[in-house]
Design a protein that fits this description.
Length: 90
């Protein structure tokens, strides 16, 4: 088994290695915990989140928010573009 491409991502701005997919127009199921009587609640961290629908808006660095763009400066919004970007920059 090869290394996942996302593990090859290195942020050009802050050199971190994690990146995120930002989803818009999505429906997300999340377990909530600690519902208090003033209506404030927290989401369970880690597991328990399920994306039902939505579109990829962009890919960005998980630390500084650096957004992946193609050679024309267009924001990358699909997996193929992210693969290309990582291949080119690793
Ligand atoms: Zn970064």
């Amino acid at each position: 088994m090869g290394e996942s491409l996302n593990e090859k991502f290195v942020c050009p701005s802050c050199k971190e290695t994690g990146f995120l997919e930002v989803i818009i127009d999505g429906a997300v199921l999340s377990h909530l915990i600690d519902l208090s009587d003033d209506g404030y609640f927290e989401h369970k961290e880690g597991s328990g989140v399920e994306v039902l629908e939505g579109f990829t808006s962009r890919f960005q660095c998980s630390i500084c928010g650096y957004t992946l763009t193609d050679d024309n400066g267009k924001t990358i919004d699909e997996g193929e573009g992210a693969v290309e970007w990582i291949t080119k920059h690793s």
